[in-house]
């Protein structure tokens, strides 16, 4: 009899503590809403550099100037390569549509061919220009797609000395998982900026896939701006360091910057 | 009799040995159990890399190229159909999609590194651009959609031969593993289970035209590990069982049986236990060690016990210690000598071979033989002296004279002896003819081997290999690493064209199914960016354009997509070559031709090339097997001759000892040369081991002849005649044991071991026949001095001449 009573009380205490703990954490929905409500500015000009390192430590460095402008229902971006010299002048124009069913449009201008070629839309889970980030990662920036996942706040955890909420995101179904090429993400979201400082990904079979970390975050024109992203693929050993500098949210960008003909002229 | 009555040093030694029987037995029991306790440490290594000396340049080259270009040994699933549309029906392509998805979910398989029609993208050019889309996005409905897929793939030269066969009958699903060593065999079995299930549920409804096979290195390793286990479980016990039967027939006593078994167990435990203790793993070939030791070590016991029973029969009232001492005094020399020749045979085989597992077979078989010798010289007499002498039913005493009345086996040998001694010259001439035939056969001997020959033709892996060789570019590959002198050097169109020319040259070679390099990808992109114009399937003409193509590709490809073709500095590129036949003999001319081509075309300061890859390793490995074999045979013959000559204190006796086995080996070269049996890693072991083992017959016979003429003062003819029922009989059981023991290799699951077993068994048996026929015939014809010098009244020609000279009688 005594043991049963003891188990009963222990159970009660256990229930109480888990509830108390759960109450101490904001719901995942709340956190994700805050993440997505963050102001990113309607347009931005940046110097965007990709430093790619393969499994053996060999590096490729590519420098670009990039422009982004948000429109109703879509985001347009264009980038021009400035280095290395053999790809200098190559331009890459993308229209991302918010409607998930509509394929994105992409054009690439190759100066050596003197032609602009339209490239069929990449899948969301495809890697972006040889980096370890996917088109989805680039498109969403610091935001997190609400429709793709079911979320759960797991606990609080420190990242770089900052107390973050660890939110687990599981794709809502297998089809989405396959599109995104992952089966689980852990977001470590900093409640001060509502930016995820670290994302951990698992592949569709549950093997550790990659980790991305934001290393430098500064306030420019009152907008929290990511200056450096570190990404490493645990399976291929490939790494990417993406840096963004000279971020300018003030200079208004003309609409005709984001048209095919501009690619030819270079910038 | 006591110690002082002992005639020889040896007898005095064994008098001492038999003085402490319990102590000696205890010491050996402790030693054997001590070594046996190490057995659980045994590791198994089924990798094919083990067959190359670590640090060999071909292996280093291969590993370097694998590391630079991230090459792995994938598991390959081949889907095939001989129906009209081949695999290009909606049903079968849907099976490919289903299999791909299931395989991606297998533990250990990297889901992002599974390549099939269901994962690969088609790149096509349009008027204003380029479309990148999967060949199989959704499940297909109807033949029309399947035909569309076929048209798309066939326009992609890179995939034709690599992913789908030209005739459309076959397509592959290639799965790379996260960690080959950790997941290899399990992942292979899981994939096999998926394939079996799909075959059962989906293919059965499509008629018998379609089939699915699993192949690839992962499968090979998994299969071999299984075979080693299977072989270990059946070959050793089989050899043991057969030998027990021989022993029972030979002695018909319990004592004869268990004494022999103790020697066998001691030898096998000694070799395998010390192997485990020293950290040397079990290789595929190591399974022959216990089988060889069971066969060889029993000989010591057979000869000692044979002599023991013979002596007992001749002198039933002899006290037991005297009986044992007398037996050991007579037998220690032939037993020691034959053990040393065995060891020399193994060591000659081991040390002339550059294949590490063969070295280990040589070393640890030698250790086992030495262990058997020690047990025979110490533990066996110690046990015998504790036992009350009891006559063997097989050795019945003859009532009148002091020799043994031959039993059935003795009589067979006597009859054989009668025939040989009647026509000795015929026997010698026949042998000479055999040696000549062998000499003619040697140039026809070929060294050849293929990894796939380790499998029976009815195994799934063999069938898959044959299918891939017949339909695809081939299951066997090697690589050529092209190296530019500076970073970005391989963006240069001139140097890319050199690679293109190299591929063209390679594709003209026989057996080359296809080649793949970055050049093929660049050409495909050039075509896509020029409105899919087939005439644009050429290399870009400009360094910058090449660089921009790579950038373009990265717009949709994975960061490590090009890893297997070119490095990040655009300085190193890999050309991979598929061969349709994995035999050494077929790869050799290709590799040697390419080597020459590279020497001529790729040796300036701006560009270099090196051959690497598995078939290149195999080329060096099998090449060394042939050299090692002949070096081993020559070394074994010299060593065995030297030790016999030393033991008998006569170089002629040494020569006589080697002659029968020499003849037998020549007979085998003739047979192998004319029938096309090839020398390979497993069969190359046979000759040197056979020399060491088969010379024992001759050694026993010569030793007995010397004993008969020297100690028993018998005439040459009498000694020869008595040789057959006594020593001849013991040798008959010896050869039966050795043949049956070695013959147990023939129940191996691995075909080359079956050939090895057959070769060594018949070689030993032929040597036995040579020893009991050719050897007495030679003695009868040539009357060698090392024997006749002990016989009074029988003088050699020189002696007679010498005597005549001294008597100064005019001739």
Automatic annotation (TrEMBL), chain A:
Q: Which Gene3D superfamilies match?
A: Lipoprotein localisation LolA/LolB/LppX
Q: Where is the Uncharacterized protein TP-0789 domain?
A: 73-263
Check the record and name the InterPro entries matching this protein: TP_0789-like
Annotated keywords: Lipoprotein
Q: What is this protein called?
A: Outer membrane lipoprotein-sorting protein
The species this protein was found in:
Agaribacillus aureus
From TrEMBL, chain B:
Keyword set, alphabetical order: Cell membrane, Membrane, Transmembrane, Transmembrane helix
Q: How does it sit in the membrane?
A: Multi-pass membrane protein
Q: Where in the cell is it found?
A: Cell membrane
Q: Which InterPro entries match?
A: MMPL_dom, Mycobact_MmpL, SSD
Tell me which PROSITE patterns the record gives.
SSD
Give yes or no: UniProt keyword Cell membrane: yes
Q: Mind telling me which Pfam families this protein's record contains?
A: MMPL
Q: Has the keyword Heme been applied to this entry?
A: no
Specify where it is mainly localized. Answer: membrane
Stretches that traverse the bilayer:
20-37, 235-251, 257-276, 288-309, 363-387, 426-445, 618-643, 655-679, 685-709, 730-747, 753-779
Residues covered by the SSD domain: 260-386, 654-781
Any idea what this protein is called? MMPL family transporter
